[in-house]
């Protein structure tokens, strides 16, 4: 039995559940008899253990299970009867005052899903991102692909690709091998010394002063120079201090980039080495990546607009659940990176703002979908999976991967649903196109 629903806050509710002890005891005895049929104890045949021994061994757990079941059934009945959509899980606490004789009572405190009011979409401002893939971007991508296939030759020594020119000094783009030793106030410090250390000048791997101190040296030459470590340098012992380094250059290798020819095209998966096909292939890949990033930016603008025009209270229980989900995702990511998660604290407040936005958006999207019948259709899901499959060598394997697992397909359905919402909002809102430069969109990280 449950009392009337009390409203404690905007979304918080409470009901009192009363359970007759006689009902509990009857169910406990029933379950003990079932348990007795399979109970085992030293000196007794299975199923022949005295009921007192069965009760002593299993009674406490069975009583707890019965109480949980009775309270759960009463709670579900009460919320269904009052048409309440429970957000998260109820907090169940034993009640000690005003409890009728022969009963036990519990207070169930919980939150309900909010009413979501979507404002006037025609008044919402949305920014639609636009970007193009030109021949210049294809050229730039080819340069990056060449650099990914770079190989080095010792400067001054003849090779199949030449000797690197007449300048035998270390220049940007060269891979140098050095010995170095650093001191602070005349004392060597940890991590300040190395032999046969190799790096490429100009890539920014070393501090600018260190690279400048190496530039222009010839093999066998040494140079001593001061170096000021930044205040935020990762090595706390030297951060903000000035050291003196001595660098000795042992080897210079010049970079040879492959020619853009048939062999280069073949290395990129073009069987006949046709350069035109190679450029077309690169363009298709770039356009696919650009399309993905453009959609992501536009979707973010749509979501921001929906949040701005919507009114709702967000259940704390759902935020707490999402905080836990985000923390677990972070733990798993750190573990995959080889980090010791047990040594790393996870302050909940780091995840609260993100969780609150995710939950808020989820509730808004659910309302927009329901109100406008924007559910993902089977043909849309199939088309999305087929689009994923296009970038793989064996599209059929990708199709099988998704359609053989309901949870994987659910992920695709969620993406399609979001796209349906985005397209719906774009059709209603005030949309302004914003052209974004290719490099800005790609974050200066062009992928071929």
From TrEMBL:
<keyword id="KW-0131">Cell cycle</keyword>
<dbReference type="GO" id="GO:0044183">
    <property type="term" value="F:protein folding chaperone"/>
</dbReference>
<dbReference type="GO" id="GO:0043335">
    <property type="term" value="P:protein unfolding"/>
</dbReference>
<dbReference type="GO" id="GO:0051301">
    <property type="term" value="P:cell division"/>
</dbReference>
<dbReference type="Pfam" id="PF00254">
    <property type="entry name" value="FKBP_C"/>
</dbReference>
<keyword id="KW-0143">Chaperone</keyword>
<dbReference type="Pfam" id="PF05697">
    <property type="entry name" value="Trigger_N"/>
</dbReference>
<dbReference type="InterPro" id="IPR005215">
    <property type="entry name" value="Trig_fac"/>
</dbReference>
<dbReference type="InterPro" id="IPR001179">
    <property type="entry name" value="PPIase_FKBP_dom"/>
</dbReference>
<dbReference type="GO" id="GO:0043022">
    <property type="term" value="F:ribosome binding"/>
</dbReference>
<dbReference type="GO" id="GO:0051083">
    <property type="term" value="P:'de novo' cotranslational protein folding"/>
</dbReference>
<protein>
    <recommendedName>
        <fullName>Trigger factor</fullName>
        <ecNumber>5.2.1.8</ecNumber>
    </recommendedName>
</protein>
<dbReference type="InterPro" id="IPR008881">
    <property type="entry name" value="Trigger_fac_ribosome-bd_bac"/>
</dbReference>
<keyword id="KW-0132">Cell division</keyword>
<comment type="function">
    <text>Involved in protein export. Acts as a chaperone by maintaining the newly synthesized protein in an open conformation. Functions as a peptidyl-prolyl cis-trans isomerase.</text>
</comment>
<dbReference type="GO" id="GO:0015031">
    <property type="term" value="P:protein transport"/>
</dbReference>
<keyword id="KW-0413">Isomerase</keyword>
<dbReference type="GO" id="GO:0003755">
    <property type="term" value="F:peptidyl-prolyl cis-trans isomerase activity"/>
</dbReference>
<dbReference type="InterPro" id="IPR027304">
    <property type="entry name" value="Trigger_fact/SurA_dom_sf"/>
</dbReference>
<comment type="similarity">
    <text>Belongs to the FKBP-type PPIase family. Tig subfamily.</text>
</comment>
<keyword id="KW-0697">Rotamase</keyword>
<dbReference type="InterPro" id="IPR037041">
    <property type="entry name" value="Trigger_fac_C_sf"/>
</dbReference>
<dbReference type="Pfam" id="PF05698">
    <property type="entry name" value="Trigger_C"/>
</dbReference>
<dbReference type="InterPro" id="IPR008880">
    <property type="entry name" value="Trigger_fac_C"/>
</dbReference>
<keyword id="KW-0963">Cytoplasm</keyword>
<dbReference type="InterPro" id="IPR036611">
    <property type="entry name" value="Trigger_fac_ribosome-bd_sf"/>
</dbReference>
<feature type="domain" description="PPIase FKBP-type">
    <location>
        <begin position="173"/>
        <end position="258"/>
    </location>
</feature>
<dbReference type="InterPro" id="IPR046357">
    <property type="entry name" value="PPIase_dom_sf"/>
</dbReference>
<dbReference type="GO" id="GO:0005737">
    <property type="term" value="C:cytoplasm"/>
</dbReference>
